[in-house]
Amino acid sequence: MNKKIPALAILIVLSLSLVGCSTNDSKNGDSKPKQNTEEIKNHKIGEVVDLDGAKVSVKNVRKLESDSNVYAVEIEITNTGDTDLESDFLQNYILKTDDNTVGNAINNQELNGELLFDTIHPGDTLKGEIAFELTKDTKPKTIEIAYENVGKYTVFDL
């Protein structure tokens, strides 16, 4: 009986340690970006929006002269943080149309300073265009802009 008590104690300690290791800690295990608790206000073309680490502005929207329904959105980003800011035209910019579909970001040669995969160093400003292919007979309505290491995201009316 005396040998069973230490064995039982060891078994309980091991069981508790395994349970402790397998539980999710929402503070450390959550890989989703933090949700902004502030109400998101849509901004107008030309406005500069401070995203707590970057200042961003949509300067212009234009339809490209191609057979398909492709629009170019001119964006200017200034890194106001103290670390590099990664700008990825596939991940950071979501264009929505007037029928609530999402435009596809594409590589296009008709752009003035194409934004693709760029690193913006602290204090630097980057300006260029992103092309979006839309479904037939739709027009751009909004663009959502968010960056990985920046505290907020924003929406611009187009």
Structure description:
With 158 residues, this protein is mainly β. The protein has one domain (44-157): Immunoglobulin-like. Helices cover 15% and strands 39% of the residues. It is built from two helices and eleven strands, in the order ααβββββββββββ. It has helices at 4-22, 26-29; strands spanning 42-43, 49-50, 54-63, 70-79, 85-88, 93-97, 104-106, 117-120, 125-133, 140-146, 153-157. The strands form three sheets. It has a five-stranded antiparallel sheet with strand order 2-3-4-9-7, with no helix packed on it. A four-stranded mixed sheet has the order 1-11-10-6, with no helix packed on it. The radius of gyration is 24 Å and the shape is elongated.
Percentage of residues in DSSP E strands: 35-45%
The figure for the number of domains is 1
Amount of helix: 10-25%
Overall form:
elongated
How would you describe this structure in keywords?
Immunoglobulin-like, signal, 39% strand, elongated, 2 helices, DUF4352 domain-containing protein, five-stranded antiparallel beta sheet, mainly beta, DUF4352, 158 residues, four-stranded mixed beta sheet, 11 strands, Immunoprotect_excell_Ig-like
Describe how the helices and strands are arranged.
Elements: H1 4-22, H2 26-29, E1 42-43, E2 49-50, E3 54-63, E4 70-79, E5 85-88, E6 93-97, E7 104-106, E8 117-120, E9 125-133, E10 140-146, E11 153-157
Parallel strand pairs: 1-11
Antiparallel strand pairs: 2-3, 3-4, 4-9, 5-8, 6-10, 7-9, 10-11
Protein name: DUF4352 domain-containing protein
Signal peptide: 1-22
Organism: Clostridioides difficile (Peptoclostridium difficile)
